[in-house]
Amino acid sequence: MTDTLIRLAHISRTFYLGDSQVHALRDVNLNIQQGEYIAVMGPSGSGKSTLLNVLGLLDRADAGEYHLAGRDVTTLVADEQAQVRSAYVGFIFQSFHLVPRLTAAANIELPLMLAGISPDERVRRVKQALHDYGLDARAEHRPNELSGGQRQRVAIARATVMRPTLLLADEPTGNLDRVTGEEVVNLLEALNAQGVTLIVVTHDHALGARARRQIKMDDGAIVSDTSPNIAVEAVSDESP
Q1: What 3-state class would DSSP assign to 1?
Q2: C-beta atoms surrounding 91 within 10 Å
Q3: Is the dihedral of CA 66, 71, 76, 82 positive or negative?
Q4: The predicted structure's pLDDT at residue 187
Q5: What is the pLDDT of residue 167?
Q6: In the predicted model, what is the mean pLDDT of the chain?
Q7: Given a cut of 90, is residue 135 above it in pLDDT?
Q8: 227 pLDDT higher than 90
Q9: What's the pLDDT at 2?
Q10: Which pTM was predicted?
Q11: Which residues form the ABC transporter domain (predicted)?
Q12: Which among 14, 55, 133, 195 is placed 20 to 30 Å from 65, CA to CA?
């Protein structure tokens, strides 16, 4: 892999809670190549989800630069960010985030509609996605009529129906039993094998170990990175 998909330079993000400051990201520097499979790990409050939201243009850094596919997306206005997200990024969440009143097929179709894809092409892509994820018989079922695994498969189909370059998964197996979680991870890894860049935030060390690169965070900073091209940073000044 030689193409750099993501470059973060000195990214910081601070939240204000009353009179308190929370430094969610502290001077984060990170390069990610097209096609990588990365697990982002660390304790609660370490900045994992904030990093994912910045990468997915759901949140904006207070300082630093973010280049995605060679484009500086740091200062894009909201409409421009939405266009970039639609073109490049798919999201998968622990709690699925499906629209309750929509069927499985309609949930999958939603990003295609928002992107202005033609009706005929929408029908073709949704039908293919339902088939690819074993959901043909569940196309007209609403989320409350689906199992957890089926809901997550709908969520993955929705996240990938726009054929994103980057797939961001925040605790994708957190609400699933072990067997169903394994099925979901296999689906994500199959997408990565097809060339999709996969970044997974997880507390599950077994899931994290499956990734080819592990990034560990603590207190808003990257404290270790298994990438062979990046030196591991010390957790503290006393660390070797």
Answers
A1: coil
A2: 20
A3: negative
A4: 93
A5: 97
A6: 91
A7: yes
A8: no
A9: 52
A10: 0.89
A11: 6-239
A12: 195
Q: Which residue has the higher pLDDT, 14 or 229?
A: 14
Task: Give the model confidence (pLDDT) of 183-221 as tens digits.
Answer: 999 999 999 999 999 999 999 999 999 999 999 999 999
- pLDDT for res 214: 96
Residue with tokens 């990438």: 227
C-alpha 66/C-alpha 70 separation (Å) is: 9
Looking up tokens 């001077």 gives 27
Rounded to a whole number of angstroms, the distance between the first and last alpha carbons of the chain is: 31
CB 155 within 8 A of CB 92: yes
Q: How confident is the model at residue 66 (pLDDT cuts 50, 70, 90)?
A: very high
Tokens of 10: 């000195």
Name 32's bridge partners: 6
Dist CA 125 CA 204 (whole Å): 33
CB contact burial 126-153 (16+ within 10 A = b; e otherwise): beebbebbebeebbebbbeebeebbbbb
For residue 111, give the nearest of 49, 48, 62, 154 by alpha carbon.
154
Q: Write the DSSP string, 26-72.
A: EEEEEEEETT-EEEEE-STTSSHHHHHHHHTTSS--SEEEEEETTEE
Structure tokens at 67: 């280049």
- State both tokens at 19: 């009179």
42, 78, 154, 170, 176 from 25: Cα distances, Å? 13, 21, 31, 17, 29
Q: What is the CATH number of domain 4-225?
A: 3.40.50.300
3-state secondary structure of 194: coil
**What's the rounded Cα separation, in Å, for the pair 71 and 54?**
15
Q: Which residues contact 238 (CB under 8 A, 6 or more apart)?
A: none
Tokens at residue 7, please? 């470059």
Comparing C-alpha atoms, which of 111, 115, 147 is closest to residue 129? Answer: 111
